[in-house]
Task: inverse folding
């Protein structure tokens, strides 16, 4: 079957893109390195904070996604798009934005001190969790909300007709949909938090919060012990593999749950208590996520007009990279989303430290070409790899559901090959594909990934230009560039996401 | 779009061959950016060399280590004294061939491979509107009010963070860990690099940050802000020197030599202060811009030679880590 061949080829390609550079690093280093006690401590801390962060993000996302699903209000669409902003912020911008609100001199501390209370003590494990939930709650909300949206409208109508109470509703409708959406959401967020470095260190308050990624960076930058960097990266990769194998098994194969594909309408009875709860949750989440964003907007907006032209040229390069990466990402994501092994493979590109991946690619390219000439190409490919797990997470569950619902009918009609995709999958995958494309585009706008080894002297990207402004003490102009980056990322995200939703009652 | 980029690359490659000579200079990103010294230096050098100076930005040490003998660099500029041991051990660098006595540094320079092109003292910079007691020594720093917070950089990921750890080691020796234990409650947080820390400082999150004694020059010159100041410590300050070197593999040795000579010339040296916010390495203070000449500076420079730095580095970082992990 042609689609099977494409699926396996894609998985093979992605595996090769991760494995060959890794192999190149090891063969250059002359083998694996032994890890010390400090490394294992860092490893334990990394896994612990990542698991906690993923758990909390998912826990908070459940009531938020439910509220956003149950309540229809003016500006709901815009709010859902805006809530995605933290996820696509460059790390350094997010840190400064978060601390402007939750820091020692932040907005909240100022308010607390006005009424005679002590400041917030943000630095520590609590700070790491706060930051990671800030980044990942939007992703969790979107992935879980999508679970809600995949439930056929008829089911909600039936539940309403039967007058199911909250508990029965949870058992019959919400429980099963959460069981389907949560393991995957937990998994990607866990993997995102594993690679945390600057955020964990800064918000964690110092070396107590040493993560594996920091150890990799140190081995690479200062000790130039690339064998050690690669060994650490592999240990991390193996762990991600195990976590993925366990969690993806939990998802199971969905049962047939077919409806008429009608737009969802809210059938549940609106009670005051429920509305109060839902809008309370929405207001809380919106405030938590939007206050730091507001502070980023506020500190950058007056700088926008005085940004040098080079910043706008850089924005152009970043847009090109983002669009190419998005195309690549989606081209890989669709076939990989169709089988469990593919879903696992999709995680590896993200789980491998970008420094190690970059080093491997550099070693591979260097004998044949000047790596700097290929800087943009490499950036496009690695950015696509980085965004892959999110796209696959969004597309995978929807694909399995379509199969559970319609595969038999399609088989009976001998709907095969391209026709099956054209008439069965693609129309029904439009929303997750749109969302994934938006995410991929936004993420590659902000990503610095492998740029340390592949900086193109003539075609800087926007995040790089922002860092350059910071290094030149121009913190104000850098806030302007950060805001431009945020606006462009969100804009791209919005366009793709909307494109995916058109024609569906979202 | 991609095809046109590719075509442009091909075109650029062929024209470069047609041209006389290209000097490839590896430099850190901040150096080559339009706000750094790179553009001025490129223009000035091209005026006198009749060649094309090509800056290649990025992370220096990992890249030359990866490239080894195949490096395309003729010149590497922007390395720092605390990591040169590793760079030197590659045998990739040739003697700089310049007269070290032309240098105007607070320490004696005897290295014939790596040549300093700028320098500054590692210092704590503070906001005078937010701080009550300005420490004038490490002893005062370790006993200043606990709610007067500092942001520093991690010595495991940041070169300025490493310089601080070496500075403390130079002052306290075996007592360094005790010093860090005392300072720990005053450290608000530790960042990956200088930019994060300095951003927190200018955002007002902390009134004091680890930076350089030359940092206030930016705020004075470009923002008319005289409230950002460097604390000068009586124990002396660690010197931070940025270096340039010529590769042994260069196929343009004469041009590379010409550049090394150019580094010590006025055209290069005068470009440094206002673009890199550091002191030029071969100009007496009388020739510095007024704002630099009037900056407070310590009487005494502390410095570990590259071998000393390499010898104490692991231990100094471990002491720092232990004390701050309590």
Result:
């Amino acid at each position: 079957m042609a689609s099977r061949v494409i699926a396996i080829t894609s998985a093979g390609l992605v595996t090769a893109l991760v494995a060959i550079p890794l192999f190149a690093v090891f063969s250059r280093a002359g083998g694996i390195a032994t890890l010390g006690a400090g490394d294992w401590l860092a490893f334990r801390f990394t896994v612990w904070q990542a698991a906690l962060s993923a758990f909390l993000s998912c826990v908070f996302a459940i009531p938020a996604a439910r509220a956003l699903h149950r309540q229809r209000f003016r500006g709901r669409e815009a709010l859902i798009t805006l809530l995605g902003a933290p996820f696509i912020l460059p790390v350094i911008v997010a840190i400064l934005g978060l601390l402007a609100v939750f820091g020692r001199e932040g907005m909240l501390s100022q308010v607390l001190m006005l009424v005679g209370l002590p400041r917030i003590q943000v630095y520590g494990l609590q700070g790491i969790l706060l930051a990671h939930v800030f980044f990942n709650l939007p992703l969790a909300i979107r992935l879980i909300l999508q679970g809600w949206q995949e439930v056929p409208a008829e089911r909600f109508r039936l539940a309403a007709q039967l007058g199911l109470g909250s508990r029965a509703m949870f058992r019959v409708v919400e429980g099963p949909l959460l069981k389907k959406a949560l393991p995957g959401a937990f998994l990607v967020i866990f993997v995102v938090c594993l690679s945390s470095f600057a955020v964990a260190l800064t918000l964690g308050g110092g070396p107590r919060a040493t993560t594996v990624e920091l150890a990799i960076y140190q081995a690479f930058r200062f000790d130039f012990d690339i064998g050690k960097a690669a060994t650490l990266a592999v240990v991390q990769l193996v762990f991600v593999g195990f976590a993925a194998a366990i969690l993806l098994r939990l998802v199971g194969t969905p049962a047939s749950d077919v409806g008429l594909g009608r737009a969802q309408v809210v059938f549940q009875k609106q009670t005051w208590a429920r509305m109060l709860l839902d809008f309370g949750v929405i207001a809380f989440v919106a405030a938590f996520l939007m206050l730091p964003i507001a502070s980023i907007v506020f500190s950058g907006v007056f700088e926008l007009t005085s940004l040098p032209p080079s910043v706008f040229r850089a924005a152009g390069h970043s847009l090109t990279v983002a669009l190419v990466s998005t195309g690549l990402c989606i081209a890989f994501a669709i076939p990989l989303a169709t089988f469990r092994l593919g879903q696992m493979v999709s995680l590896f590109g993200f789980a491998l430290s970008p420094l190690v991946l970059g080093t491997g690619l550099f070693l591979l390219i260097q004998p044949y070409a000047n790596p700097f000439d290929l800087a943009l190409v490499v950036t496009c490919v690695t950015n696509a790899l980085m965004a892959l797990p999110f796209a696959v997470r969004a597309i995978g569950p929807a694909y399995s559901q379509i199969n559970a619902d319609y595969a038999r009918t399609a088989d009976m009609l001998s709907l095969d090959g391209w026709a099956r995709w054209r008439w069965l999958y693609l129309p029904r995958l439009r929303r997750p594909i749109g969302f994934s494309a938006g995410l991929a585009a936004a993420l590659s706008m902000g990503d610095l990934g492998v740029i340390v080894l592949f900086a193109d002297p003539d075609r800087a990207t926007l995040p790089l230009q922002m860092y350059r402004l910071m290094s030149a003490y121009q913190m104000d102009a850098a806030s302007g560039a950060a805001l431009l980056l945020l606006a462009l990322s969100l804009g791209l995200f919005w366009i793709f996401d909307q494109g995916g939703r058109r024609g569906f009652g979202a | 779009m991609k095809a046109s980029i590719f075509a442009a690359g091909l075109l650029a490659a062929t024209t470069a061959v047609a041209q006389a000579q290209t000097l490839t200079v590896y430099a850190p990103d901040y150096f080559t950016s339009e706000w750094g010294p790179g553009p001025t230096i490129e223009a000035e050098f091209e005026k006198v060399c009749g060649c094309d100076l090509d800056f290649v930005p990025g992370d220096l040490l990992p890249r030359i280590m990866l490239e080894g003998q195949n490096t395309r660099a003729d010149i590497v500029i922007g390395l720092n004294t605390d990591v040169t041991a590793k760079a030197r051990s590659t045998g990739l660098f040739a003697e700089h061939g310049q007269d070290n006595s032309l240098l105007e540094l607070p320490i004696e320079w005897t290295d014939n491979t790596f040549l300093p092109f700028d320098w500054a003292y590692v210092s704590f910079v503070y906001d005078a509107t937010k701080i009550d007691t300005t420490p004038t020594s490490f002893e005062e720093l370790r006993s200043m009010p606990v709610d007067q917070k500092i942001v520093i950089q991690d010595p495991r990921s940041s070169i300025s963070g490493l310089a601080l750890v070496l500075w403390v080691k130079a002052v306290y020796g075996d007592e360094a860990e005790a010093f860090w234990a005392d300072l720990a409650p005053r450290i608000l947080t530790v960042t990956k690099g200088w930019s994060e820390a300095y951003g927190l400082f200018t955002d007002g999150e902390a009134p004091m940050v680890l930076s350089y004694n030359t940092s206030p020059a930016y705020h004075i010159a470009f923002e008319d802000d005289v409230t950002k100041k460097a604390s000068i410590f009586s124990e002396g300050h660690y010197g931070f020197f940025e270096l340039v070197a010529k590769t042994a593999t260069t196929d343009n040795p004469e041009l590379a030599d010409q550049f090394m000579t150019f580094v010590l010339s006025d055209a290069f040296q005068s470009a440094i202060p206002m673009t890199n916010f550091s002191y030029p390495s071969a100009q007496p203070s009388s020739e510095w811009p007024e704002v630099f000449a009037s900056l407070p500076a310590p009487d005494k420079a502390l410095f570990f030679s590259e071998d000393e730095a390499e010898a104490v580095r692991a231990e100094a970082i471990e002491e720092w880590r232990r004390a701050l992990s309590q």
Remarks:
- Residues 1-18 of chain B have pLDDT under 50 and may be disordered.
- Chain B has two domains: 2-119+239-293, 121-238+298-325.
- DSSP finds 14 helices and twelve strands in chain B.
